[in-house]
Amino acid sequence: MDAPQPLEISPSAPRVEFIALVALTTSLVAMSIDTMLPALGVMASELGAASPNDRQLVLSAFFGGMMPGQMLCGPASDSIGRRRALFFGIGLFVIGNLMCALAQSFAVLLAGRALSGFGAASPRIVSIALVRDAHAGRGMARVMSFVSTVFILVPVLAPSIGQGVLAIGSWRLIFWGLVVIAVGNLVWFALRQPETLPESRRVTFSLRNVARGAAETFRHPLTFGYMVGTGVVFGAFINYLSTAQQIFQEQYGAGKLFPVYFGLLASGIGVASFVNGRLVMRFGMRQLSRIALLGASSLSLLAFLTAWLWGGHPPLPVLMAYLIPCFFFNGILFGNFNARAMEPMGHIAGVAAAVTGSVSTLVALAIGTPFGLAYDGTVLPLIAGYLTSGVLGLVLTTWAERKNDALATPA
Predict the structure, then answer these.
(1) Of 176, 210, 309, 384, which alpha carbon lies 20 to 30 A from 329's?
(2) How far apart, in whole angstroms, are the C-alpha atoms of residue 197 and residue 175?
(3) 325 and 255 within one domain
(4) What is the pLDDT of residue 130?
């Protein structure tokens, strides 16, 4: 095969093809989650899951696989190059989805999901590294803004795609579709995207270097506080993802309108990302994060009391009136928390990104999974999860900022 022709990219004029390729690569994770939400109940029932809430494990297994995958693929891509790391990850992603498509038991389905999650960690991290290799400063911010615009469309549209697949065939077609998209992504990448990390800039993979980087990440109060805080906030979102199909389709009988409600809430996060980009330069990450945490916590407390008075089943318009601003606040938190955690780690950005990604995913699973499994036919566990994440996030970030201020102040 001939060497891939380089995509001509520059900070002043990023190529549309490069942006589209990075957006598709990044979107593999979101597609692996959101397209199958309408099918969770069907696949769990068909494969003999023991409990109705066990359907949530289809998502938890994917995130569980991503956790160690993120820890390994970041340092690995710094050592063997972006292309090899991406090819290996997408290869595992394809094998995992094939296992799911052919699964005859719920256990095999979960194993396939874990393997595909492990593989999906590579495109998630390598795609960001590609942009970092090719662009810097405002150029990188510009490209990532374009990528985010495309990326936001995935959770808005993906559930409708999954619902459409169910209308014409088996839930297994969803996994076959992911295989086709991943292989297409791989071929496109192989033919058109050259290696962006030259041999001279590669770092020998060493567990000792990873351990040192992890230790430094844990020692810095700002990074530690916002790393765990990211996991806490994401945990509430995992709780929502795990129970959204049960809440909208079964509790509220939304049926085929479920993707509409899901897309409306997902668009709230997209609007928050746009607003945050406009306000963060004026108010700063610290102040915006605190405002969003206070807003989300206060709103969740009010919503919990309101839902309790309705026996855990408030009218759907009332629930949406709470969730839309709640998602907006969480959209503000996602970007700012990650950026704040990485702020002191520029000298070990690769290892730090791997550590913070893995730890925050572990924390998110530890918080989101129990709240999801506590679903009892009411929205109280969902709202309680968001209330808990808001309060814990406020405590963690307040502690982190005070410790950081103390370090910065001369004795």
Answers:
(1) 309
(2) 32
(3) yes
(4) 78
We report the CATH number of the domain holding residue 35 as: 1.20.1250.20
Q: CA 65, CA 115: separation in Å to the nearest integer?
A: 6
Confidence of residue 97 (pLDDT cuts 50, 70, 90): very high
10, 159: one domain: yes
Domain that holds residue 359: 206-411
Question: Are 100 and 44 within 8 A, CB to CB?
Answer: no
The model's pTM is 0.80
Q: Predicted confidence band at 228 (pLDDT cuts at 50, 70, 90)?
A: very high
Torsion of CA 228, 124, 276, 138, to 10 degrees: 120
Number of domains in the chain: 2
99-156 pLDDT tens trace: 999 999 999 999 999 999 999 998 888 887 777 677 655 555 556 656 666 666 677 7
d(CA 324, CA 328): 6
Residues 113 and 193 placed together within one structural domain of the fold: yes
